[in-house]
Inverse folding.
């Protein structure tokens, strides 16, 4: 029973293309996140949604656009892909948002390895 | 700016050889410190949350401790299946990182049989 799932697992595409990554969680959590893990393994937050509302929007190119159709889903659309976008993208969820004060642990999906050629 | 530094970058142990991983942090008030395990090709798996200095938590061969400046992940009598990258992350109580996890670069642990 997968808690946080992402599709696709691997994504290979050419520069200039537009692609989407989908994420779903069945934990009943209110908050979802997108992270980027670069080649040096640093995980950096990109976006966070709480109850479908965007609450964290880091300094990310506006080619990246997240969408949360409901609490259980958070998608990431990337326009005009560039070589530097190659990385592993992780979706995560938590019971609530740490903006509210609690230090909620986050549960991560398996990741999507994006390779831009 | 909040910072998390993990050491060593890589650690190779023999099965049964106990050791510790270090996570040093600088944060605008600590709301929580998290330890995760990440296997190759997989997402980080939550291990522990520590909230205040002096707190300790244990799970099987792992024990996490916290001071005001650093956290240690002690591994007792490790087995090959403990091989993974261990990530530390902090949640700040204020500042520009408020509400966001700041991760360290991880320690790659390899346990040889």
């Amino acid at each position: 029973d997968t808690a946080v799932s992402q599709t696709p697992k691997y994504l290979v595409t050419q520069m200039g293309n537009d692609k989407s990554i989908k994420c779903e969680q069945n934990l009943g959590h209110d908050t979802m996140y997108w992270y980027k893990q670069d080649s040096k393994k640093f995980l950096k937050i990109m976006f966070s949604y709480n109850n479908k509302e965007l609450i964290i929007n880091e300094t990310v190119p506006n080619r990246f656009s997240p969408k949360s159709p409901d609490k259980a889903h958070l998608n990431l659309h990337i326009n005009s892909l560039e070589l530097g976008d190659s990385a592993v993208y992780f979706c995560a969820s938590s019971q609530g948002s740490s903006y509210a004060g609690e230090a909620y642990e986050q549960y991560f999906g398996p990741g999507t390895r994006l390779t831009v050629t | 700016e909040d910072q998390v530094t993990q050491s060593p970058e890589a650690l190779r142990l023999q099965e049964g050889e106990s050791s510790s991983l270090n996570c040093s942090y600088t944060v605008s008030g600590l709301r929580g410190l998290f330890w995760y395990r990440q296997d190759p090709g997989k997402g980080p798996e939550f291990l522990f949350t520590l909230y205040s200095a002096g707190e300790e938590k244990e799970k099987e061969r792992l024990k996490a401790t916290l001071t005001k400046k650093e956290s240690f992940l002690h591994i007792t009598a490790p087995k090959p299946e403990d091989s993974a990258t261990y990530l530390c992350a902090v949640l700040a109580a204020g500042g520009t990182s408020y509400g966001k996890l700041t991760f360290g670069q991880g320690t790659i642990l390899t346990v040889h049989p």
Chain A has a mean pLDDT of 93. The interface with chain B takes residues 4, 40-45, 48, 55-56, 58, 90, 92, 97-99, 101, 103, 105-111 of chain A (CB under 8 Å). The radius of gyration of chain A is 14 Å. Residues 67 and 94 of chain A are 17 Å apart (CA to CA).
